[in-house]
Amino acid sequence: MNDQILVEAPKVAPIQELFDKNFYKDIFHENSEEEYRKVIDMARDCISGFLQNNKTPFSGVKPADLLSVINTIDFDTPLENYESLFQEVESLYVNHATTFHLPNYIAHLNCPVVIPALAAEVLISAINPSQDTYDQSAGGTFMERKLIDWTGEQIGFDANCDGVFNSGGSNSNLMGLLLARDYYSLENLKHNIKLDGNPPEASKFRIFVSEKSHFSNQKNSSLMGLGEQAVVKIKTDERFRIIPESLEEAIIKEKEQGNIPIAIIATAGTTDFGNLDPLYAIGKIAKAHEIWYHIDAAYGCGLLLTDKYRFLLSGIESADSVTVDYHKSFFQPVSSSALIVKNKYHLNIIKHHADYLNPNDQDYDELPAQVNKSATQTTRRFDALKLWCTLRLMGREKLGQYTEVIIETAKETAMLLDAQSDFELLNHSDLGALVFRYIPKSEKEYSASAMNNHIKKTMFFKGEILIAGTKVDNEFYLKFTMLNPLTTLNHIKNILKNIRNHGQEYLQTV
Fold first, then answer.
1. Weakly modelled stretches of the chain, pLDDT under 50
2. Spatial CB neighbours of 300, under 8 Å, sequence gap ≥ 6
């Protein structure tokens, strides 16, 4: 045996001792409270400036101008202090940020947010929990579950329901469709897709949606290996809602062709038109054909808050799964969404065990784990705290009153547009999305699509008013999306006046 000589390692100071106490001042810990308070105060002042100085929905900055400045930033050269940091952030971002809270913003599905939810954001970001396991978010686990149960109760589900918070409606819709596919395969083909992948029959799987449904349905079908070809689009009526008779005919036709219906996805609040499919009638069809019934209520979920308009969701309780976007219609900051399922045992389909996180032999009554319910996210923010703080301080009734104001302003706006000879209103809305265009009489020939596209673009870069646009039958239309209870009919009248002015300016150029 060779003799081994043990050489004593040189004594060195622990690496922490090589730096002074200021080296760690930027890490959030018990000795950085003073620094944290100072910086949070500066952030608050930045937001105050945002509220006081940004009086229009957008600055009008051109992409090329903003990009040229951002391209000069060198991440290898840190700024000297927080003052410099906030000055930079203000000049690059805050001064050009879209102000969704202003009444003249009526473009997309961005709601103004409530203050108790903003307070919750401070706690969430600083404490930084993850909702996947109890040991990372003890109280958060049960607070999220309580809100899932509450949402299920508002939908009309019983105590057997369950669900999980997600990042957004597309993710929640993906979970709903994933459960539909895997449930059908397990129940009818005795095939476990989670373990063995899509069965040979998957090429015949069919998913039925409205022709006006959200594009995430096609994307999700593609992600699941079914392809967009699996999505069957059903014709809609004059208010852009699924025609139940057409749905039934399509299901029968696909069966006759040897294909396999696995899911119906109804929309409770279409993105463009704000209308709800006939949920009750579709539920009866789903039950008769034994097809998974998912309802995308990402937009229309706000109706759960109001007793006055809750009837529009009649039939939602017959769904197997429901998408809810609190950050669209509950006045919550992005992100805050959830998938709610009628039968909690269906979530077992997506459960996967990892020894370091949620081992198979763990007692989940003793140590619950929300990761068992999530299909696509392991790490998840405690977004439920925002809704918790909102409901506990404001209550369902007040939120519902906001929703009622929005719906009624949209009704008044629709009547106003109908009364104008130079506007064409394409739809009346259950919620607050109105599609229309400016079509004045003129001795000049002009393209209505080109004119309305010009109006939208001009208004955007002026920054004073932001509206959306969409295409219907290849024609361009303007769109109001009302999610702000502060927007009044007087604001709408002023916006229509601006639309007219820009339209008349366009006519001078043709």
1. 1
2. 267, 268, 269, 276, 312, 313, 329, 430, 431
